[in-house]
Amino acid sequence: MFNNRPAMDTTFGAPRDLQPNDSVESNNDVYIIRNTVQRRLLAETGDEVELRDQSKMRQMIETFFNQCLSDENLICTRVERDRMLDWVLADIMGYGPLEPLLQDETITEVMVNGYSNIYVERFGVIEKTDVVFENEAHLMRIIDRIVSPLGRRVDESSPMVDARLPNGYRVNATIPPLAIDGPALTIRKFAQTPYTFQDLIANHTLTANFVSFSKACVEARINTIISGGTGSGKTTLLNVFTEFIPNNERIITIEDTAELQLKQEHVVRMEYRPPNVEGRGEVTIRQLLINALRMRPDRIIIGEARGGEALDMLQAMNTGHDGSLTTIHSNSPRDTLRRVETMVLMAGIELPLKAIREQLASAIDLIIHVSRMRDGTRRVVKATEVQGMEGENIVMQDLFVFEQTEFRNGRVSGLLKSTGLRPKFADKFKVNGIALPAEIFVSQ
Q1: Do 305 and 341 fall within a single domain?
Q2: Residue 335 maps to which CATH number?
Q3: Are residues 60 and 116 in the same domain?
């Protein structure tokens, strides 16, 4: 269970797949049991209920639950009893109807569109569940229970909240009047054990040859951007790339919501701070990046560049902080450069477009583009080198390209192949004593 503040005045709406069987008289009996347990729990603990440890709370709830079954003369099987007890425990100590979804390791994202429409993403595919809340008020109470322990609030004056749970899950809640059809809640789950490059090879996200190439790029301090759409696996791939950073380097990570899980010893993690309820106290990614440059970093890793910090990122890449890594939302490697151009302009400094492009061409060496395919799988679809300027334009060349061979029975088949071209930055491999097999760059 999660460490949340229990709400003692709610009515619990059961997921349809957890409804009591016919041997229990009605759903109202379960609601009566739940309400009675809460009243007795409140009478026993008073205002100190949220301070009780989880194991003791569970024991008390189970005791009161058994007493209620006896008082109401409800006859049920052992399986039904355990199911109803889990139901009551979830509402008092957990996230109510969402609890079984969050505990399901095959689910990577939970999406609540109003109290009666709940979807999940499983293996990259979105599907509707049978889970429901009792009403909109019940959903609002669960949302409040999620964000309150994080020191955040969501109400009409602050109808949007984006936060990170203690276990690393990312939460976004948007409520009326912004959400027209009722409160919307999105919870993105992250694997407690980070993916490795072996996992991505097994998932066909990339190939063994591409892993060797990526490892060489990180060790040779090639400035790299990982691009892709929402949910395409950018952060997962970035986390895998960090495995190749030598353990003797000082790494500073800057993220909007902390998601990276680095294994190195010398890591400083920084996270964006949103404004408080008075609209003050915000610390932006750009401010964190400027501060990081004063902290003697060997590597700077930005979880995602979204605004004016792109200018400072380019400056850092061009002033001795080689090997920097970041992610950017875009549709292709070429669009990635256009987005960076736009973000540099958001910094509020008037620069000629040619000067911006020259900075881009000088700072960025490699763009790796990932995509979520039609079957829900994530794949690296392009690795593109930024070669330099030619007139007013930035010259790029593809080093690896994913070639789809077929789409059958709902599955995408294909392979990430080398184009046969060697990157211009290959000289950095030699300087750093990195030997890559010649066949990596052989066209297949």
Answers
A1: yes
A2: 3.40.50.300
A3: no
Q: Consecutive sets of 10 residues in the chain, 444 residues long: mean pLDDT of each?
A: 32 38 46 68 58 68 75 71 73 80 90 94 90 86 86 84 84 93 91 84 91 94 94 91 93 90 93 82 91 92 90 86 92 94 88 91 95 90 95 94 87 91 91 88 79
Which pLDDT value is given to residue 44?
A: 64
* Listed residues 47, 74, 94: the one ending a domain: 94
Domain carrying residue 183: 96-189
Query: What tokens does 35 get?
Result: 């309400």
CATH number at residue 168: 3.30.450.370
Per the CB < 8 A criterion, the answer to whether 23 and 78 are in contact is no
Q: Which residues contact 285 (CB under 8 A, 6 or more apart)?
A: 254, 256, 272, 302, 305, 306, 307, 309
Residue 352 tokens read as 């000629």
Q: Using DSSP, state whether 187 is helix, strand or coil.
A: strand
**Domain end: 189, 216, 249, which one?**
189
Q: Which amino acid is at 232?
A: S
Tell me if 173 sits within 8 A of 154, measured CB to CB: yes
* Helix, coil or strand: residue 280: coil
Answering whether pTM is above 0.85, one says: no
Q: Are residues 129 and 207 in the same domain?
A: no
Beta bridge partners of 226: 327, 368
Q: Give the C-alpha distances (Å, rounded to integers) separating 69 from 19, 88, 102.
A: 16, 13, 28
